[in-house]
Amino acid sequence: MLTFALAGNPNSGKTTLFNALTGSTAHVGNWPGVTVDKREGTYKKGGEPINIVDLPGIYSLSPYTPEEVIARNFVLNERPDCIINIVDATNLERNLYLTTQLMELDVPIVVALNMTDVLDKNGDRIDVRALEKRIGLPVVEISALKGMNMDLLMTRALDAVAKTRKGETVLKDSLLGSAIANAEIALKLKEVEAPLFHAVKLVEKDEIEVKTHPAEAKAVEAFIQENAGGKTLDTEAEIADARYKYITAHFSSTLTRARKPDYNELSKSNKADKVLTHKWAGIPIFLVIMFAIFHLTFSEDLLFLGSIIPSFGEWCGAEGSVAKGIFFAGGLNSPGVILFNALDLLTGQIGEWLGAGLEALGANEAIIGLVCDGIWGGVSGVLSFLPQILVLFLFFSILEDSGYMARVAFMLDRIFRRFGVSGRAFMPMIMGFGCSVPAMINTRTLADEKERTATVRVIPFFSCGAKMPILLAIAGGIVEHFGIGNADIITYSMYVLGIVVALLSLLAMRNTTMRGETSPFIMELPLYHMPGFKNLMLHLWDKAKHFIQKAFTIIVASCIVIWFLSNFGWDWRYVGEEGMDTSILASIGKLIQPIFTPLGFGSNLNSNGWVFAVAAITGLIAKEDVIATFGVLAGCIAANFAGATEEGIYEVGVLISETGITVPALISFIAFNMLTIPCFAAVAAAKGELGHGKFKWTLLFWLVTSYLVSSMVYTIGEWWWTAPIWAAVIAVAVVIIVLNNKRLDKKAALAKKLK
Ligand code: GDP
Ligand code: MG
User: Fold this and answer.
1) Mean pLDDT, range 395-400, rounded to an integer
2) What is the pLDDT of residues 422-439, one digit of tens each?
3) Does the pLDDT of residue 258 top 90, yes or no?
4) Does residue 57 have its Cβ closer than 6 Å to ligand 1?
5) Could you tell me the pTM of the whole model?
6) Rounded distance between C-alpha atoms, residue 35 and residue 70, angstroms
7) Looking at the structure, do residues 497 and 637 belong to the same domain, yes or no?
8) Which of 224, 256, 288 is at the close of a domain?
9) How far apart are CA 327 and CA 253, in angstroms?
10) Does the C-beta of 149 come closer than 6 Å to ligand 1?
């Protein structure tokens, strides 16, 4: 039976054509080893049945993505009798780029010029005869969607099969034409099949090609260097350029447009890409943009004006005024902080009115406490983070809608692949710095289930906005109380610790329980364009709604519970804030305290050491609760407690002197809170996003990871000589994983052979 392969760019209409040709005979499987769909079916309308294979969508035959490798291996090794190259007629030049590569193979090819119905509608026209002549391949105008010219296409393909075809290249007269010709001769001598195709790839220094023909690769390289006068050429870029130039010079004129295309827009986009996706500068530029976004969202010292001009804060406004409170804190506040402050002011006011109102109504202390601290405290606590989260999302949406994020994901794809995830995982991770909930939902763009599970699990390690107060307060407390280190450096290192643990966990999971191929990352790069305002607002509204719906209900409910537990004793008597030590919460804290001893903040602490255990537990509800708990409990412990400060630094100081907790234990405490089970809302999101049966293992993963990392931080910090012990344990684990994977690979290979 003859086999025809459908090859073309993503979205060129391959699958539509495939369905039109094969009807109900189609079946979908996977290409071996990867989760890329493989569609096969039979065309029966032309006498002899013909086997049709829908290749993955590709832009080129280079070996960079699994799709490209699959398509390339298929056309080279399985040698279809004919390639039907689908070309989107509305995007002629870009689609013909692949055609110029396919025609280098010694396989019969028919060009199926698809979407001609769209072309007609636009009033554009392609001179098919001229295109056919110039390209040297049969061209058939079709509309896969309307089923137009399907049978004609197959007839022309059968005609093509009847003749043998030698590969042709459009690169003959280019700068590297002679190098290609030489390489082709060398490969022909070795009786390599499809010598022209391989010759071009050799000149491109294609990874796979250089490996299979190392001697020829060296000779070609020497030849090129000699001809280029000793310079090393980027031959890959040179060849891509030559292809496009040829296409523009010879094929573009076959298209007459009713309306002139916006070439201006295209060239602007290309110019922007020269800088923004530059080989080396691309990622640093991205980091700067990211920093600017975080700066605009979280900074209380915009453009570092306050640090540069020390008196800036003073001449900005009167101390204690509302305006100063909202707009200035040492320096100028960022838009995110301004909104945060404004909302905080408003919710604070509402809280006061609520309290006053209830008092006027003659409500008792417990009711006022429940409504003001428990319920309203919870509601406003959540609300207060909404502005910054929305500001962050606004920036992200702008980057996404403009087409930039797609490019960043591409740039990072190669690095991410080493850790077993594709570049697609990047967006959710970045979002994790804002809030884990939307970040986890965003993992839906990851096609592979195991990859997605692994990504969902590490998202909480990208320390979210609600964890920031923990970092800031404890770092401040350490600096103030012990007089060592720099709060900035401690905070920054903790962020880095989170990222490192995330990447290492990914690596570990993808080599053990979540083993599998990393899903391919292919995606059309859109032109840059101005994001639409309406679209942006829709995005924001969507995020806001989600945040409010999911997080709100859970946090509010949990705040009520926490309030009850910390204000009532086991005998159901109201004890109030002063009686905290006899509350249900305190007794639970004392009970669980020993668990945290290996982490440095358990039973080894002096009196009232249980507050750290309690804070870690309340953090499970909302990470803001950790510092809130400190505030409340420090008040009960220190008789001379002078009232809460905003940052919670003072509270941490009180707790340090009271409990005798050490610096390594404090760092371990931050690490634990950062890495352990995230807040209720994030846990609910994870439950929703994870596949069946994965949820309970995820909870365990968080517990184990945080416990291990924190105890490692604590023990090494406290007794440096434990470091080699930890190193040895890790080394043994790595060896076991590697050996086990070797065994599994061998087993899989054997199973394949037996098949
Ligand atoms: P693939 O990625 O190459 O498999 O492309 P698909 O077959 O999924 O098609 C991409 C989109 O183009 C779909 O929305 C199709 O409905 C549409 N499409 C495919 N062929 C035609 C065509 O001939 N005319 C029009 N107007 N749309 C088409
Ligand atoms: Mg498809």
Assistant:
1) 82
2) 888 888 888 888 778 878
3) no
4) yes
5) 0.56
6) 11
7) yes
8) 256
9) 59
10) no
Summarised one tens digit per residue, pLDDT across range 345-354 is 888 788 889 8
Q: How far, in Å, CA of 755 to CA of 752, rounded?
A: 5
Residue 419: phi, psi to the nearest 5? Answer: -95, 5
The encoded tokens of residue 198 equal 């391989």
Residue nearest to atom 28 of ligand 1 (CA): 145
Q: Is the CB of 8 under 6 A from ligand 1?
A: yes
The pLDDT assigned to 51 comes to 94
Higher pLDDT, 346 or 476: 346
Same domain, 609 and 692: yes
C-alpha to C-alpha distance for 13 and 8, rounded to whole angstroms? 8
Q: Is the pLDDT of residue 29 over 90?
A: no
Interatomic CA distance for residues 447 and 164, integer angstroms:
40
Q: Count the domains in the chain.
A: 3
Range of the domain at 147: 2-161
117 and 25 in a common domain: yes
**Residues 224, 272: one domain?**
no
Q: Could you tell me if 588 and 515 lie in one domain?
A: yes
Q: Which atom of ligand 1 is nearest to the CA of 9?
A: 3
**What pLDDT was estimated at residue 647?**
47
Residues 76 and 106 grouped into a single domain = yes
What is the maximum alpha-carbon separation in the chain? 101
Are 614 and 486 members of one domain? Answer: yes
Region 214-240 average pLDDT: 86
**Residue 253 CA to ligand 1 centre (angstroms):** 25
56 CA to middle of ligand 2, Å? 7
Residue 85 C-alpha to ligand 1 middle, in angstroms?
14
pLDDT, position 201? 95
Question: CA angle 155-161-166, nearest 5°?
Answer: 135
Helix (H, G, I), strand (E, B) or coil at 481: helix
Which residues place a Cβ less than 5 A from the ion ligand 2?
Answer: 15
155 and 201 share one domain: no
Asked if pLDDT for residue 560 goes beyond 90, the answer is no
Look over the chain and give the mean of its residue pLDDT values, rounded to a whole number: 84
